[in-house]
Amino acid sequence: MTTAPEGNPAESADVRAARAAIEAHLSRTDPEREPDAAGATGSPASPEGRDEGGRDGGRRVDDATAERIAREAWDAVAAATPPPPDPGTDPAPALGAREPEEVTELRRRAIAVARGLHQLGYHLDETLLPGPDMAAG
Q1: Domain ranges, ordered by start, for the chain
Q2: Which of the ends of the chain has fewer CB neighbours closer than 10 A, N or C?
Q3: Which mean pLDDT values do the consecutive 10-residue runs of the chain (137 residues) have?
């Protein structure tokens, strides 16, 4: 699957967030992007099926990888979310308690990444897609 190149002004913010998440994931996991002992980097096109000009900046990302990227975004939300109050030590949680700003921002990013991946045509498990009940968050 391919789409217009990155940087298209008509792209939604969600697609841009998804592209940024893909790039971040690939830079952490793609051995071709790591310099070898001589300091050279791998070629962006390879026999493993990566194609120049693809929807992910010249590298192919399958649906399973897209799901891992979306799951990483939601895992960051879960990791930053404080545990619920313990009824044994806090019998009356604060009324109107708000989610920490860091968690709110991570949640916004996870929603944007999941929506953007979906808009780019990746099939994601329904639990990773934001919905009215926010099953993913």
Answers
A1: 12-31+61-84+98-130
A2: N
A3: 54 93 89 49 37 47 93 94 76 70 94 95 90 52
**Alpha carbons 25 and 116: distance in angstroms, whole number:** 15
Residue 39 to residues 24, 26, 48, Cα–Cα distance (Å): 20, 18, 22
- From residue 99, give the alpha-carbon distance in Å to each of 24, 40, 56, 71: 26, 45, 33, 21
Q: What is the pTM assigned to this prediction?
A: 0.67
Two structure tokens written together for 137: 């968050």
Tokens of 6: 């990155």
